[in-house]
# Entry
Amino acid sequence: MDNELIDISTSLRLQIGYGIGHVLNDVCASLWFTYLIVFFHLVLEFSATQAGNLMLIGQISDALSTPFIGYHSDHTDNLVSAKYGKRKLWHLFGTACILASFPFIFSQCVGCSMTHKWAQMFYFSSFIVIFQIGWAAVQISHLSLIPELADDDHTRAHLTAVRYGFTVFSNLFVYIITWIVLRVTGECDKQQVGPGDAWKFRHIVYIVLSVGTVASILFHLSVTEKRTNRNQDQLIDYDNNTPVQTHCEFLKKPVLYQVAGVYMSTRLVVNVSQVLIPLYLHRTLGLAARSLAVIPLALYLGSLTAAGVQRLIPRSFTRKLNYLLGSACALSGFVWIYIESDDNYKIYYIYLVAVLIGFGGAIMLVTSLALTADLVGARTEASAFVYGLMSFTDKLACGIAIAIIQMYADGADSSYYRDVLSWVCGGSVIVGLTLTLLLPKYARDMVTVNDQRSTINTEDPTAASPSDIL
# Structure
């Protein structure tokens, strides 16, 4: 069993096999966050409020299903899961839900395209709920494999970076396909997105789902889930408790909610900016359809650069320094959006802004995920539960934020999305950075938790070595 630890840290095949396991989720998430409101508001001509409500329905469905799936993923114990792996079994279930529902979301209402928009919302909502349940199952099961496959905090961070690297490649693929389809089928350099583009989005969905399906199949063939008992460093050290006791111990620790706040703030930066940037380009800057693919592409080129930099960062570069670097880059981009809008900015500088936001957001996200893996440590039986709680906060916060933003968008002027991007996303950067800097600096075996007491050694602030988690 110990050889499995060596394999995952040195085998390129296993790293790639793990990384591609989230590609289907990634391509769907890219379309969901970047183009859902664009599709429903600009193509199907739903109001901004209705489009925002559809996204809210999806985010609430995801938020509610995530902790449920996380809990049951930790407790799944049957003949099939024992042979195939409980994480991979939930991953397979989620994949089936996604493939059965997502194509209907980015298509016109079948047999009801002429009915009232509020009636059509019930039709689309049913597929959105199924999709989000499946998406949550894939996300939680895939994240929960990190602590089981990785032995130490540096290896976990490396796996997280590999995972995020494939996320970036998936987004790049989506935007390149979108640009190709828009360019081949129309004058995307002159015309904005409109109702006549519905069939184009349908073809984009079919292409990216095909690639995501192949990636999921390769993941299931490449990665073997194994149960191991290992002693390793973690934020919280536990006695041998039952899974329920372990979950309760996590819920009693303030650091859990602090890390959840970091993750939620980071996701607000990444996801809300991904939703609003296409609307900002279309409405505030008045750019053509081409920009809705090319500028998000530039944003994810920045993310790709960050994923490469993350792999080269030495152990002595702490989580807090990582997050500070990402925050500085992202905040610079949002400030630039607020102060610039001239022609040179629209033609040239908007790409640099996109790269800054992409680079900064990627560093922040990888760091927040690594903090979550550190929080789980060796308690892999509770990993899905913890990731479920983290994801619950981010899904609910993003859904509510976007719905509120869209609620006031219909009657707002053209500068609305510029202001919202700057203040909401910029404010989230500051909140996430503050919570990260306030995280306690845990050293090895610093925290001991059992059924009766919790003790923290704070007498020696230098006890933590540079390679410790924060």
